Amino acid sequence: MAANSTSFKKGRRKTGGRKADVPNKLSADFIENLLSVAEALGSDGAGTDGVVGYLKRLGLEDPAVFCKLLLRVMDWQQKMRNRGNSG
């Protein structure tokens, strides 16, 4: 396949797209909504203990889902630590 002027060239500067270090808006909105729902549900479905109560209940009733969530958060924390040390 012959290369043309739009072919990827090694070392080409980034053009377009989101600026570096700008968070994904959809993810930020999703997280905010998720936390609002967890706060409203709490440990008993009526808001008792808020987000912490909801997460306790999730850990007890569905540990597989809780572990997946915990791993994602821990991965995110590690990325944030690495980002802070690299700059």
| Beta-strand percent range | under 5%
Helix content: 55-70%
Largest sheet: none
Average pLDDT level: 84
Secondary-structure element order, N to C? HHH
Q: Can you tell me the residue ranges where pLDDT is under 50 for at least 5 consecutive residues?
A: none
**What is the overall silhouette?**
elongated
Q: What is the distance, rounded to the nearest whole angstrom, between the alpha carbons of the first and last residues? A: 40 Å
Tell me the count of domains: 1
CA-based gyration radius: 20 Å
What is the SS-derived class? Answer: mainly alpha
Helix count, per DSSP?
A: 3
Number of strand segments: 0
Give an overview of the whole structure:
The chain has 87 residues and is mainly α. Helices cover 61% and strands 0% of the residues. It contains 3 helices and no strands. The protein has helices at 25-41, 50-61, 63-86. The longest helix is centred in the last third of the chain and has 24 residues, at 63-86.
List the helices and strands and how they pair.
Blueprint: H1 25-41, H2 50-61, H3 63-86
Which key phrases capture this entry?
single chain, mainly alpha, 87 residues
Give a short overview:
The protein has 87 residues and is mainly alpha-helical. 61% of the residues lie in helices and 0% in strands. It has helices at residues 25-41, 50-61, 63-86.
